[in-house]
Amino acid sequence: MAKYKNHILVCGGTGCRASQGEEIVQNLGKVLEENSLENEVQVVRTGCFGFCEKGPVVKMVPDNTFYVQVTPEDAPEIVAEHLVKGRKVERLLFTDPETQERVSESKDMGFYKKQIRIALRNCGFINPENIDEYIARDGYAALGKVLTEMTPEEAIKVIIDSGLRGRGGGGFPTGLKWEITRKVEAEQKYVVCNADEGDPGAFMDRSILEGDPHAVLEAMAINGYCTGATKGLIYIRAEYPLAISRLKIAIDQAREYGLLGTGLFGTDYDFDVELRYGAGAFVCGEETSLIHSMEGLRGEPTVKPPFPSESGYKGMPTNVNNVETYANIPVILLEGAEWFSSIGTEKSKGTKVFALAGKVNNVGLIEVPMGTTLREVIFDIGGGIKDGKKFKAVQTGGPSGGCLTEKHLDIPIDYDNLIACGSMMGSGGMIVMDEDDCMVSVAKFYLDFTVEESCGKCAPCRIGNKRLYEMLEKLTEGKGTEEDLTLLRNLSNVIKDTSLCGLGQTSPNPVLSTMENFADEYAAHVHDGKCPAGQCKSLMQYVISDEKCIGCTLCSRVCPVDAITGDKKEPHLISQETCIKCGACYEKCKFGAISIQ
Amino acid sequence: MSKVKSLADLRKMREELQTKVSLREKSDNPEKMVQVKVSMATCGIASGAKEVMNHMIEEMDRQAIDAIVTQTGCMGYCHAEPTIEVTLPGNDPVVFGHVDNKKADEIIEKYVIRGELVDGIIPVNYETVKENKNE
């Protein structure tokens, strides 16, 4: 076998592929061949590097040069300069926004400095479509160790001692869940991987499945052995085609190697995995709905207990864990419970992956130890707020979470602290907002999502959320009253207390947390008929200043509804009745004569 | 590929597959490795730097020395090409000139393994901009 001198790792995550990542791979291959380097340099499609903001990302090994925003046309220069002449392509290096210096290695970039990668350890490192690379990274060694050297009880004890908690949102101790499933006696048991990631803006599960699918398969087999299940099911949304195709490849390869199937590692333990596709309903992330959906029934929740651990898929004991939870399992078993529990806070161990999105400079996928503060995440890793604007809030936990403000920035992130501030960990979506975001509108956005995604089974969620949405809409139109605010709060609490499943029990959280943290903003909408952020269209108007307007007529020409009148060289006027508040005039005016009031 | 029938099978397989990712793993901790930079400008390539580089990679690999061999741009010692810069963990870089395969073997045997200096060292008489800044 030819020994490669260099590896070129090209990000093959969904984001980078959408920006022509695949063409980069092909062009690199072509140019390498032209230079007769194809036997010396290996081009590898990896999973997500996390630095999606500056994708597509290309990493050169062994010198670890990290190129960002690479285009397919850059391939000849990378080969000619970097590989042949040994000179870095300066213009493709990341520029530190503070020092304006080019940074050549990822470990010197603010984005990566505070990260510890456990669940994402292989993402951006191995080719997810090649089981050999996973095995070379100690893949399936944990499964082998557990099957041949440990009893299920011993393995479960390691997971319990590690302090690992469910990464899907609730934070239930994983080892305990396994223990409960193990103790129930049944002919057939199942383990299920919940890959129905549904929070707006969250993509950590998808990235793990795309970047390191074998880690999930291995963990499921371990889970099966520990709980006494021989069948694994992955419930994944059909909207994740790349993750599905990589999972299928991974399952085939694992079967071929005898790492899935019968008699694993020479023992009499059998385990195999199948995929089940979801249609992308948010409620199916709730485990009882998920199980019903897999059974071919409507994706609706049922009352717990009985918990799936006792009676789940086809009425049999079923252990449901989230993708990221599984990704932690093999490392914990290899490195030990003590190692894992040394990372994190007292009650939340290990790391958490967050999908950082919104008005932040470095949008991407990050993994930090529990206990890292929001400030570190948003300002050090995220690089602060876009366009130098002011930080206003960060939304965690998706539609079930809440908005945290400036005063929460220094709180160490863990399950319990986030709940104490009125939000929650959720699956790890983190949406950053700046001064231009109206918090009433944000609450309305999430309610819109929940109303859409409510399965309709129980009245509080089906009817209550719709009423909440209508009240918020009234507020954003400036028609809200003091009474509405009281009603909003009361109804929110009723929905939380009386809904059947997690969806309804948490859906009012965005309303309650914004009311709590941004009471002024709600008051301004009600009492002054104003939207302080200038986002609620009904509450604002565009006005032309007579002094600043020189009568260039540009605004009247760009206005799509002819709402602006005025003669040449004379101040113009906007007819508020006709104006649709599209903002086209505001953006075009060169003299700053148009303002929002 | 045959099926994995035991943990020993998997371990053996892992050993064999290690080379697939070892380059990437090493590059995450370069300071713990022997780092060799081969000057690969036009003059270097013309004097055979490429052959030396391939030879060094193979030799280090054969002798199981944890090393990263990379190419770099012109170091300015065109009179002494091919030149290589060797950095042992915790030591200052040392530049060797006129390196052919034979010299490369000597460098590996004496300097890399035993830490003895060999003939052909080019005294480094420059400072890089970055070093200055850090001081």
Describe the structure.
Chain A has 597 residues and is α/β, with parallel strands linked by helices. Chain A is built from 24 helices and 19 strands. The mean pLDDT of chain A is 92. By secondary structure, chain B is an alpha+beta fold. Chain B is 44% helix and 16% strand. Chain B has five helices and five strands, in the order H-E-H-H-E-E-E-H-E-H. The longest helix of chain B is centred in the first third of the chain and has 21 residues. Chain B starts with 6 loop residues before the first helix and ends with a helix. Chains A and B meet through strand 1, helix 3, helix 5 and helix 6 of A and helix 1, strand 1, helix 3 and strand 2 of B.
Shape of chain B: elongated
CATH superfamily of chain B: Glutaredoxin
Largest sheet of chain A: 5 strands, mixed
Task: Give the class of chain B from helix and strand content and strand pairing.
Answer: alpha+beta
Spatial order of the strands in the main sheet of chain B?
2-1-3-4-5
Regions of chain A with pLDDT < 50 over 5+ consecutive residues?
Answer: none
Tell how many strands the DSSP assignment of chain B holds: 5
Strand order of the largest sheet of chain A: 12-11-15-13-14
Gyration radius over CA of chain A: 27 Å
- Biggest beta sheet attributes of chain B: 5 strands, mixed
Based on helices, strands and strand pairing, what is the structural class of chain A?
A: alpha/beta
What general outline of chain A do the C-alpha atoms trace? Answer: globular
User: Which pair of chains forms the biggest interface, and how many residues does each contribute?
Assistant: A-B, 38 and 40 residues
